[in-house]
Amino acid sequence: MKLHTEKAFEEAIEAALLSPEGGWQKGAPSQFSRQLALDESVLFAFLEETQAAEWQRLEAIHRGKARQKFLERLEKELAAVGMLDVLRNGITDNGVQFKLAYFKPAHSLNPDTERLYLLNRLTVTRQVKYSLKNENSIDLLLSLNGLPVATVELKNQFTGQDASNAKRQFMEDRDPAELLFQFKKRVLVHFVVDADEVYFTTLLNRGKTRFFPFNKGFEQGAGNPLNPHGHKTAYLWEEIWQRDSWLDIVGRFIHLQIETNTEGGKKKKEERIIFPRYHQLDAVRQLEKDAKAHGTGKNYLIQHSAGSGKSNSIAWLAYRLYSLHAYNQKVFNSVVVITDRRVLDKQLQDTIYQFEHKAGVVQKIDQNTGQLRDALIGGNSIIITTLQKFPFVLDSIERLAKETGADGEAARNKIAQNKYAVIIDEAHSSQGGESAKDLKGVLGGKKLEGKESEETEDETDGEDFIRQSILDRGKQPNISFFAFTATPKPKTLEVFGENGKASHVYSMRQAIEEGFILDVLKYYTTYQTFFKLSKAIEDDPNVNKKKASRAIARFVSLHPYNLAQKTEVMIEHFRQIASKQIGGKAKAMVVTGSRLHAVRYYFEFKKYLKEKRYNDIKPLVAFSGKVPDPDIPNKTYTETELNGFGERELPERFNTDEFQLLLVADKYQTGFDQPLLHTMYVDKKLSGVKAVQTLSRLNRTHAGKDDTFVLDFANDREEILKSFQPYYEITSLAEPSDPNRLYDLKREIEQAQVIWQSEVNNFCREYYAKPNLPQNKINGLMNAFIDPAVQRFKSLGEEEQKEDFKNSTTSFVNAYAYLSQIMPFEDVELEKFYTYCRFLLLKLPKKSLNDRFRLKDEISMEYYRLQKIGEGSIILESNQEAKLSPPKTAGLPIGQDEYTQLSEIIQVLNERFGTDFTEAERFNVEQIKHEMAKDEVLIKQALNNSFEVFRQGSSKEVFNNKVIERMNKNPEFFTKILTDEQFASELFGFLVKPVYQKILEGWRDRS
């Protein structure tokens, strides 16, 4: 036999499966029944060995026709409920129940189930002729107790063929009507395998068959890594098809997904067999193995890209953790899934019902916290709920105790004794603050907000309650967190990651290369707005520079001419190009800068469509709450009023052919899955995670959707590139957070002399008081110790001082709530200060929108031009591990507000046309470098970060600002910087490193 042939490849796989490590038996092609599409000899040998008594009863009933009658019954059940159901739940014939397979028990308490599991017969059969019409054969047939489970087509590159040829073979030469290939009734999954790659499908449908990759991934992209010991795909037969692994997949991974969709007013049921992709199988098994080894009290971060099949991964993980045993004891009493996605509710229910075949395992908390309380007390279930319900659980226990006389303390103790796996769907940094403290407080059995008391002997024990509050925030020994996210922030990496890294990664790059999501940066066009403003009044008033600049920017963005010009660009582009995509079904999203922008754009869109008589395009608008109209007194707008139907209806209505455009303000920029979204028009500043999440609304795949398109009015390509790069492959934490930052913030706050330590001590004494004191009295005393500080705050002279104090205090509260999740603080004074500040912020005067600087008739627009400045792909770099830095100065005030004349600000914001780079202009470049090195924001960032992190911070923004500030010195030159992207990028690259070095040198000199 030639060593390079397909037959040699086939024999190598068979030999591995038949080895003691593989655990399979050799099947005989001649024993395969073409009429029944199964192996009768193996099936009856299994039944007689494992269920002899039942078989004898059946023979007595059927009197010599037991085999024939059993096969008739089996055929009927396979046609009715399918192969997967029959394998998991068996069949009943004339009252006699038979199991068709035995799956590995979660524990070894029952020796009989262990024995029966070992009696399963896995057979690999080569060159099986399956058809009654021809002599076609399948390369490999994998069967369980004679019942076919998987087919395999093999190709060997040494013969000039690969996996693509095997795919065509399945699509062109394998008739889906053949019994062996009929959906659900026989084979569950079909594999395509060559020496380098593996693909699978669960539905043969001629030319419409969709194959999914089942590859490990290579360097965070598609494909498989090199294998020094053989084929790149050897993991398939050496690991995945290994006896225990394959039985585990059949028994506890594959599931039948049933969806009901409405088309043309009629309900249509769709069934799909879900087989795990490699990264899903790998992640769930790794997490399960580690949880079994370490028990509760550990955190895990799973960084899986959009398109990773996260819902299925969560469903599988939830069930595995629910049934996980170590030393014959359950590792977790309950699994709590935290999600806001309604679709996951039913998916969990349906998936787990197929594994357990019993109702009640999944408890959806959709009524009240009493439901959640009872589920936590009862234990032994998978609970699906939202994070917001947890803070009220212990209050619910208190009410139960009062109303029924039940023992609330016993209920809390029961919850505390249980062990929990908490799965967080799309982990964000909010899990690291007060909401996460509430969750841990409930599951840890601790009374929230320090109201619970233990038996104490003296008044100083309030300190113990404070200390306990600190400990409540730390890792709880009875809780393990499993957090899923596609875009981990530094806080997320630090709270849930291990050494600042995710436990498992399925990268954006791999998802794109494997075809599960589209590359939203492939077709990216940027526009820039050029305008000139002039002062429309004779006076030149002194105004707050920062506030006035924002007001002028807002004036331009909401200017009717600006909105009209962009509206024309968007609608004409959509009508002429975008609407023709996806077979004429494509939809677009318009991302606006604020709720008022969304409203104004909505009216502008309606007006333009009406003027042009474009009756085939209809827009919808999405925003929260009421939007006041600044030009019409007492006039407000709501989403429901403008659209003509309720908010909850919008996703479904937008899914119809009636609407094509969706204008949004924050809403639907995250977590919105609409595969028909092809184009996005962006008129809002985006950066970091927000940019990735917003633009990723386009990446969902759909039949006929080959690409996406972004038209961006507000962002430059470099900023978008910097936003996406950290999440393209592996994201990790550059360095841990510095707890000393809290003490620095505390010192800054104390310098304002608003907070007195004596009042902090008195407040906390009451706050952590024993519960037998009247609550109204405690509340009154708490206010008594907060109000003097509020009065002192009001007495601060300048508005800037008040703003600085609020910024620093807010930053301290946020930082403490976050850092105390990941660091074992034992500083009681710091905890007291945190508690006091948190409540003080609630009572400080809120800033009114009326305080915002407003322009009336001070300026007018002289000139306006909208120009395309860039198009084409934004290319992300491969083989790059992105390191994110933890927050350092978030919330701190960034310098004092400056006051200048309105005319100067207008000069700064007006942009003109370009010219050449001359010797005279080199002096201007040197001046920009000098001014950047003196910028307070850049100084702070340089002193606290590496150069790479500094470069990705505010340096580009400050550079642009400095360029704009010098516009009046040389308009042609500086306009070239602002309009020529390549020129600006090179100039910035020339300056940024010297600026960084100059700042460090200046700091060393001062030290």
Question: Can you put this structure into words, describing what you see?
Answer:
This protein is an alpha/beta fold and 1007 residues long. Helix content is 45%, strand content 17%. A 7-stranded mixed sheet has the order 1-6-7-8-9-10-11, sandwiched between helices. Strands 18-19-17-20-21-14-22 form a 7-stranded parallel sheet, sandwiched between helices. A 7-stranded mixed sheet has the order 26-29-25-30-31-23-33, sandwiched between helices. Helix 29 (757-767) packs across helix 32 (828-843). It is globular and about 100 Å long. The model is unreliable at 447-462, 467-471, 770-774 and 889-917 (pLDDT under 50).
Topology:
Elements (H helix, E strand, L loop, with lengths): L5 H13 L6 E2 L5 E2 L4 E2 H11 L1 H11 L3 H15 L2 H7 L1 E3 L2 E3 L12 H8 L3 E8 L7 E8 L2 E8 L8 H11 L15 E5 L4 E4 L10 E2 L20 H7 L2 H10 L2 E9 L2 E9 L3 H17 L4 E6 L5 H13 L2 E2 L2 E2 L3 E5 L3 H15 L5 E3 L4 H10 L2 E5 L7 H12 L3 H10 L2 E5 L9 H10 L18 H12 L5 E7 L4 H7 L7 E3 L1 H6 L10 E12 L6 E3 H13 L2 H17 L4 H4 L2 E6 L2 H18 L6 E4 L3 E3 L7 E3 H5 L6 H5 L6 E4 L12 E7 L4 H8 L13 E4 L4 H8 L5 E4 L6 H12 L5 H11 L7 H20 L4 H24 L5 H16 L15 E12 L10 E4 L14 E3 H8 L9 H15 L2 H9 L2 H5 L3 H11 L5 H9 L1 H26 L1
Parallel strand pairs: 1-6, 8-9, 14-21, 14-22, 17-19, 17-20, 18-19, 20-21, 23-31, 25-29, 25-30, 26-29, 30-31, 32-34
Antiparallel strand pairs: 2-3, 4-5, 6-7, 7-8, 9-10, 10-11, 12-13, 15-16, 23-33, 24-35, 27-28
